[in-house]
Amino acid sequence: MATSDSPKDPVAEQIRTVLDGRWAEVRQGLRADPDFPVAVPGLELGLDEYRARTLASCHELAGSDFVLGAVPPEQGGTGDLGGSVTGLEMLGHGDLSVMIKAGVQFGLFGGAISNLGTARHHEAYLQDALQLDLPGAYAMTETGHGSDVQSLLTTATHDPDTDELVIHSPSPAARKDYIGGAARDARMAAVFAQLVVGGESHGVHCVLVPIRDEQGRAMPGVTITDCGPKMGLRGVDNGRLMFDGVRVPRQNLLNRYGDIDDDGTYTSPIESRNRRFFTMLGTLVRGRITVGAGAGAAARSALTVAVRYGLRRTQFSYPDGEHEVVILDYLGHQRTLLPRLARSYALALAQNALIARMHDLTVGESTGEDAHRELEARAAGLKAVTTWHATDTIQACREACGGAGYMSANRFADLKADTDVFTTFEGDNTILLQLVAKGMLTNYQADFADLDTSGAILFGARQLTTSVIEHTIGGSLIQRLISGASGRDGDDALRDRGGQVAFFADRESHLTESLAMRLRRAGDDESKSFSVFNDAQDHLLEAARAHMDRVVLEAFVTAVEEAPQGPGRDLLAKVCDLHVLSTVEEHRAWYLEHGRLSASQAKGVIARVNELCQELRPHADTLVDAFGIPDEWLTTEMMADLASF
Amino acid sequence: MATSDSPKDPVAEQIRTVLDGRWAEVRQGLRADPDFPVAVPGLELGLDEYRARTLASCHELAGSDFVLGAVPPEQGGTGDLGGSVTGLEMLGHGDLSVMIKAGVQFGLFGGAISNLGTARHHEAYLQDALQLDLPGAYAMTETGHGSDVQSLLTTATHDPDTDELVIHSPSPAARKDYIGGAARDARMAAVFAQLVVGGESHGVHCVLVPIRDEQGRAMPGVTITDCGPKMGLRGVDNGRLMFDGVRVPRQNLLNRYGDIDDDGTYTSPIESRNRRFFTMLGTLVRGRITVGAGAGAAARSALTVAVRYGLRRTQFSYPDGEHEVVILDYLGHQRTLLPRLARSYALALAQNALIARMHDLTVGESTGEDAHRELEARAAGLKAVTTWHATDTIQACREACGGAGYMSANRFADLKADTDVFTTFEGDNTILLQLVAKGMLTNYQADFADLDTSGAILFGARQLTTSVIEHTIGGSLIQRLISGASGRDGDDALRDRGGQVAFFADRESHLTESLAMRLRRAGDDESKSFSVFNDAQDHLLEAARAHMDRVVLEAFVTAVEEAPQGPGRDLLAKVCDLHVLSTVEEHRAWYLEHGRLSASQAKGVIARVNELCQELRPHADTLVDAFGIPDEWLTTEMMADLASF
Predict the structure, then answer these.
(1) Residues A515 and A604 in one domain
(2) Does B484 have pLDDT greater than 90?
(3) Using CA atoms, how far apart are residues A480 and A498, in angstroms rounded to an integer?
(4) Which of B324, B402, B409 has its CB closest to that of A428?
(5) Residue B218 at interface with chain A, using a CB cutoff of 8 Å
(6) Boundaries of each Acyl-CoA oxidase/dehydrogenase middle domain copy (chains A, B) (predicted)?
(7) Are B145 and B200 in a shared domain?
(8) Which of A411, B164, B339, B494 is the most interior residue, by most CB within 10 Å?
(9) B207 and B124 in one domain?
(10) Is B5 on the interface with A (CB under 8 A)?
């Protein structure tokens, strides 16, 4: 194991450099920073104590480089958005309550002010939010509506007599629910509500609403309750908010995309109500990116612990009766951990590419609405696949450590409980994959922003005849690899990198085109549009997964190709092979059904996964060292026990 | 929803009768028993308080009918073993800490005394154990050895001078670990240790060792530590035990299968050391059966909550814009919940058949060692597949309830955390599946009991040419169905029940025969035996899973066939179809690779699963009502919220 003092494994270092990517300096700085609040709390901390501790950790982060990175220089930040999200990702190796609470305060609350507000909000609130002098909440979800944000019930009604907005929760279903910060700390909430001006509703907008006074008492008309105990993230004070005709000045409307002028008229730079809504939501993409990043980090923490345990723990003897078998020498154990390790590599590199893309699109010149839609779809898809991967991987790692894995002192209890909600918050994963499918069918054309998801999908299906795969990551490099591939048939295709990518892309194209054909066949009968869409939902989700498989693989391949020659790159290439082969193995029924693999080729894929597991086994330690998680961040009781034997 | 007051759904009642099975009376009695300690504790109970509460609940159970059922009449019990395990299964719908602590006290500690001890132990301790006047622990697992019980390091050495046994932990790896009851309550432990008599080791035996005095202080030489916080099962006081030359009278040896006579000589009715070991362990099969039963119960609780939520919760509107869609109307949501619901039916019925078999074998005349080995293998396999099913299903149900599913008040937090360890305790699932494979290759012949698992598997492989599928559940009925099946080819085969069973059995036979062939091909070179076994481990595990799929299906089919004609049976038959088709869908790559399904037939299976989901959707409420879990046992905050909208 690499510790700061032990001699470094040069291969691990080479690979770590690749994984660290563009914001390597941020990562290295945080690894070496003794004040980075990454330590996990003592066991069985009381709820109040845990919440206080989490808030204190967020105060340590307040105003730091990576918090200021979230905001452009003209608003008082550094504009290093990529560094900012990378910093939050690093927090994901520690106490996830801190990561989430920091994400809510600086990313969501601060982000809403920064992205949806204008100068008056930036000047009044932004520094206070980033310095945590103004603890905030992001009040979007309601008890009755989570995924369907457009149907939120809370209203913000303009009263022309007083020039105020009246915030109101008309029913129990309108209660703001699961709101981080609401139960204990937040003094102001960014409240999403239907904006009603002159008796007319203009759809969901965001309004800053004070919810507590300086003494922490609820403001008049605001009812605050505590969500109480949750499965995990115990340090985050989730609560509920009900508003009973709460009045705030009109100026509290975050008015970048929709405003009320002095004579009480609603105006917006975006005419279409739907497009306005999606544009507002789109600015908040970094929340999803952060959740995906944190999930990936948590999965890498779990794998590091489980692989190191598997390399030390023995059980049952060799037939010679003299030596016990190291459990990672069992093929079954390798199959549990190593394909998930390979996939963690793929997802980490895809995450890096996504962060870079977000950074460039935000910081640089705007490259048009299509590019933003593509980013949003990719962020949605990567969040979905990474959070599911994390849930699955942490579970597998827990089981791989047996009874020891169940003890809280060995980290999996918190990793599992804290990350569990990632699959459904910041967008339910299934809904997010539908968003991906929408993008695939419409090629991110903004023209479809006026349709809801199912409408856009059906409309897109009518237009699409041949899907065009855009190699969004490493475009020309990927194109060159595909062109240079030796064969296109089963084993051959999988033997070289270009063939592997083409194999994934072919699955994506076929699933997309057949989906479009299937949806088109149903005709234009509007009354059937729900059943047409619904009957194909499994196909649609499969197409979205296939798309993400291809996008993720391209990120992995690009990183391997761009890495400097050497043993690090060679090992990385083998990890990429395992990722490819185990993904194909998982979907081999599809490849068989569609004549892409013969029966014997499919069996060959299984055999090749076994071989690759056994070939990578001697490098397992190097591969988790390369994640670059400092030992001090991952101390466990079970490793100390093994050392005492 | 069925409440005790609401009019019953007759179809749900018909199906419940089938699910309740042979011990329906026990189930009905406990459902109506207001003192049955099934209530879950208030949220955020402190650890000490929770442990005290759990002990108190066990006191309520002490001496009750189903506790006394675990012990035969000649030992002072009622001998209703089936009723006893069924009662523990019902506890599985409530607080799982109570189920596990009760299982440890009455099933494991009491069971060790009953099954491994003789009259002197029965008279001295058994009633006290069953009445909880003597809180006990079952000290098998050590920090260094869990699955490999034969390699335990703790020693029990006979001292002829004092005629005592000296219990000793020679190293940190010998520490007894994760021992339920050890941290707080247990006064005596059933300690598994290498028995050394006259300087010779006779393998693992069990000795009763007092660990605390009446005042709760650790006995001299016994060091007790607390395992501290765990992922779940917070009410169970798991602890660690170290023994430093602790002396107990020779009579404390549980001596049914191995004894030390008055002149200090070791004797045993079983000559072979290996067979003796497996016979001793075999008597403890009910622990595994109970864990599988509890896992199944927990999965049914989770499905009941998630299905009812899915039938009330709406999200997104139909294209008419007026109505919101009930989320269980989405195909994706149906696919998440309904195949798992069908599988829960299959596993519940297989569990009933297993409990009945155990009961008959224990209570009736012994029907030979083979029958016991078959029971052990089936118990091992069903525990593995049911606990994995529970982990997967509870997770899916949590996600199906979104953010609400994450709140502790909605039950999934505890269900998930409490059941998590089931996949690795009472036998790691992977090891258990290897045990199943061993039985498949050796046909449970006792001759192989002298070989360890890998040895037996290799030996069995050398003998096996054609595997013989024994239809252990509903034998002649199943045989008749298979003979009467119309076709054997893809779709046709899956259209009638006999064909479905044959389709599963064919997969099992082929996997078993090809495994045997593969292992044989490697020859007799002993030095290669580990690598031969290890290289085929994935194949071996797959064969074991296929075996369990067939065994579980036969239980389901038998229950359907034996049910009285009527709408309940018709609906049950459709659930069975979904179980069959979704299982085939999951393994369709194998069926394609082995020419059992054509590509178009495989696609047909996917389409048929979708159809069955949609056909069963209107009956979802009936199907969870039929689980017969009283509403009062499953109260959740989120259902109350939905009712308030």
Answers:
(1) yes
(2) no
(3) 8
(4) B402
(5) no
(6) 137-246
(7) yes
(8) A411
(9) no
(10) no
Q: What is the CATH number of the domain that holds A163?
A: 2.40.110.10
What letter does residue A108 receive in the DSSP assignment? I
Spatial separation of the C-alpha atoms in residues A465 and A459, rounded to whole Å: 12
The confidence band for B491, taking pLDDT boundaries of 50, 70 and 90, is: low
Q: Which of A106, A136, A19 is nearest to A286 (CA)?
A: A106
Q: Which of A141, A423, A538 is opposite residue B335, by nearest beta carbon?
A: A538
The per-residue pLDDT for A2 is 41
Query: CB distance B331–A593 less than 8 Å?
Result: no
Residues B102, B211: one domain? no
The domain total for chain A is: 3
| Chain B residues within an 8 Å CB radius of A603 | 593
Q: Tell me which residues of chain A, numbers 519 to 578, contact chain B at a CB-CB cutoff of 8 Å.
A: 526-527, 529-530, 534-535, 537-538, 541
Indicate whether B122 and B271 sit together in one domain: no
pLDDT tens profile A166-186: 999 999 999 999 999 999 999
pLDDT above 90: percentage of residues in chain B: 81
Q: Is the dihedral of CA B60, B65, B70, B76 positive or negative?
A: positive
Tell me the per-residue pLDDT of B596-626, one tens digit each, with 9 for 90 and over. 999 999 999 999 999 999 999 999 999 999 9
In a domain, A1, yes or no: no
Domain end (from A234, A251, A274): A274
Mean pLDDT (whole number) for B113-136 = 97
Interface of B with A in 162-201 (CB under 8 A): 171-173, 177-178
The answer to whether position B12 is within a domain reads: no
Contact of A408 with chain B, judged by CB distance below 8 Å, is answered with yes
The whole-angstrom separation of Cα A621 and Cα A141 is: 43
B258 and B297 part of one domain:
no
Q: What is the pLDDT of residues A28-66, one digit of tens each?
A: 999 999 999 999 987 778 899 999 999 999 999 999 988
Asked whether residue B64 falls in the same domain as residue B210, the answer is no
Tokens of A287: 């929340």
Burial B260-273 (b: 16+ CB within 10 A, else e): beeeeebebeeeeb
The mean of the pLDDT values for chain A is 93
Confidence of residue B321 (pLDDT cuts 50, 70, 90): confident
Predicted model pTM: 0.96
* Co-location of A143 and A160 in the same domain: yes
Instruction: Please state the rounded mean pLDDT for residues A364-375.
Output: 80
- Is the pLDDT at B4 greater than 60? The verdict is no
Q: How many CB atoms lie within 10 A of CB A187?
A: 18
How many angstroms separate the CA atoms of B154 and B136, rounded?
19
Give the integer Cα–Cα distance in Å for B405 and B411: 8
What's residue A452's pLDDT?
73
A27-36, A476-485, B257-266: least confidently modelled range: A476-485
The token pair that represents A645 in the structure block: 């034997």
Given CB atoms, is B406 within the 8 Å cutoff of chain A?
yes
The last residue of one of the domains, among B282, B305, B339, is B282
Q: How far is B347 from chain A (nearest CA, A)?
A: 22
CB-nearest to B408 from A229, A538, A588 is A229
Q: Assess B593–A contact: CB distance below 8 Å, yes or no.
A: yes
Q: How many residues does chain B have?
A: 645
CA distance A358 to chain B (A): 27
Are residues A402 and B428 in contact, defined by beta-carbon separation less than 8 angstroms? yes
Decide if A226 is inside a domain.
yes
pLDDT at position A486: 66
Instruction: Give the residue numbers spanning the domain of B81.
Output: 19-136
> So what's the pLDDT on residue B107?
95
For residues B464 and B512, is the Cβ–Cβ distance under 8 A?
yes
Q: Across the interface, do B641 and A143 touch by the CB < 8 Å criterion?
A: yes
Average pLDDT, chain B: 93
Contacting residues of B for A310, CB less than 8 Å apart: none
Which domain CATH number covers A553?
1.20.140.10
Supply the CATH number for residue B64's domain.
1.10.540.10
pLDDT at residue A163 greater than cutoff 50? yes
